[in-house]
Known about the structure:
alpha/beta, Aminopeptidase, Immunoglobulin-like, 2 domains, 8-stranded mixed beta sheet
Amino acid sequence: MCRTLLLLFIGLPFWVQAQVPTVNRSGEITQLVDQVNVSNLRDYMENLVGFGTRHTLSEDQPNRGIEASRQYALGLFQQFAAASNGRLTAEIDYYTERTDGRRVDQDTRTGNVMATLKGTDPSDNRVFLVSAHIDTRVSDVMDRVSDSPGANDDGSGVVAVLEMARILSKKPFPATIVFALVSGEEQGLLGADYLAKKAKQEKWNLVAMLNNDMIGNSTSNGTQLRDNTRLRVFSEGIPMVENEQMEAIRKATNGENDSKSRQLARYIKDVGERYVDQLEIKLIYRNDRFMRGGDHTPFARQGFTAIRLCEFNENYYQQHQDLRTENGAEYGDVAEHIDYEYLRKNTAVNVAVLANLASAPSVPQDVSLDLSPRAVSIENINHTLLKWNEPEHGSATGYYVLMRETSSPMWEKKFYTSEREIKLPYSKDNYFFAVQAVTDGGFESLAVFPQPIR
C-alpha cells in the first residue's frame, strides 16, 4: 500500500474503517477448492464427447453410446475409490425404463452412475446429493443415432461431478456425500425421478440436493453477452409438497421466501462467494427457467430440498441442436465452446458447499419465535426472542442468529451465541430471522426459519 493511501485510510473515521468486510475462509476448504483442476476437467470432457452420442436410447457399443460413457464414468469413480481408504464406493444402478408412448418408444435398460462417499460418523445418517445428467440429445429428441456430443448439456455438469468426487473422496466427512450421474433427463427427467423415488422409499435422510445442469458456457446467442463471473441458483419458494399445516404457518409468518430450498440457495451464495473469487452467485426466485424443469424437480416433488445450478447466459445455438452450419452460424454442443475457467469456478462452488455442509452439524431443532405473554409484553414487544434445541447430529459449539429486512434477499446481520436462545432488540414486524448451528472450525449448518410458538 502506498504511503498516500495509507495516510488516507488512517485519516478515515473509525466507523468507516470498521465497515471494511472480513472474509473468513477455512484452510481445509480452501485447500479443497484449490484442487479443482482445469486440465482434469478438459480431459474428462474430451473423453466424454468422444463417445459420439449419449442418447438414453442409444445402442450399446464398446466405444459409442450412453452405456460406454457410463462405464467410463464408473471407471473414474472406481479409480478415485481406490485412493479413498474405503470411504468411496461406486456402481451403476440399473433399472428398466418402460415404454411410455412419448419419449421412450421401447423398454430400455438404463441406469444411474452412483458414487457414495460414506460419512465417518455411524450415528449421522445425513446425505448430501450432487448430480448431473450424462445423457444427451440433438434437435429430434428421439434421434439416438446422430452425433450428440453434449459438451455443455450436460457434459459440463458430469465432468464437474467427477472432479468433485476426485477431490472430496480424499477427505473424511461426518456425513455422507452421494455423486450421481443420472440418465434419461432429456427423455423426461427419468433417471432423477427413479432416484428421487428410491430415496423416498428407502427413507434417506437427504438434506440437500444440488443439480448441476449446464455450467460451462459463458456466451449467449442473440444478445452476444459474455460473462463468466455469474452463476444462477434456482430454488422453489412455496414447496411443491406442502400440506395444510405448512401452508397455514407459511401464510401466518409470510415465509413464502424462506422455504428450505431458498435457505439452501442463500447458503450456496454465502459459501460459494466466500471461497471462489471473481464469481457472483445470483439467486433466481423460481424452481427453474421459465416453464422448464431439471433433475432437481423430481426431488422437490418428493419433498426433498433441491436446487439447480446453471450458467448465467444460455446459448441456444449449442443446446439441443444437430451439428451443422447454417446461415454462417455454427450449431451444436461441442467442447470447443466450453469456458473452462468458468467451469472451474462453478465446480469449486460445489466443492466448497458440499465440504462445508458435510463437515457441519445438522440444523438446530425446534427453532421457534416466542410469542408467549412474557415475550410480547409491553416491555418486550419491540424485541424478538428466539429459542432452539441442539442439532440431532454433530456437535455445535455455538449458533449464528441471522437477520434481514423483509425486502432483502440475503441475511444482513449475524449474531453469535453459545446459548440456545437469544433476545434481540429488533422488531419481528420489521425483520426476518433464522438460526444456524456452527462448529468451532466455523462450519455452518443450513439456516432454519423459526416457527411461532405461544
